Structure formats: structure tokens, C-alpha cells
Amino acid sequence: xxxxxxxxxxxxxxxxxxxxxxxxxxxxxxxxxxxxxxxxxxxxxxxxxxxxxxxxxxxxx
Length: 61
Prior knowledge:
Layout: H1 3-10, H2 17-23, H3 26-47, H4 50-59
């Protein structure tokens, strides 16, 4: 049996997985962590000077 089939069979009992995520606020926590990770990546990208470089390149007279 493939791994995905085994995992699906194992968690098949959790038919209401979506409502379980909403009931336990786990989805909110995961979404919050994902937003924080994106913000940190964007901040690191800006701190590296990439945005400044492109702004100077595009708007130089």
C-alpha cells in the first residue's frame, strides 16, 4: 500500500477534520504562524537591499 493511502486510512475516522481544526483554533494558529513567517521573509528581503536596488533602478532619472 502506498504511504498516502495508509495515511488516509489512518485518519479516515476524522470525518469532521475541518470542523475539528476550527473548534480547536488550530487553523487560526497555523494561519498566524504562516503570516508571521511571510512577514519575516519580506522583512529580510527588504533588509537585504533588494527593494532599494529595484526602486533606484526603476525611478532613476
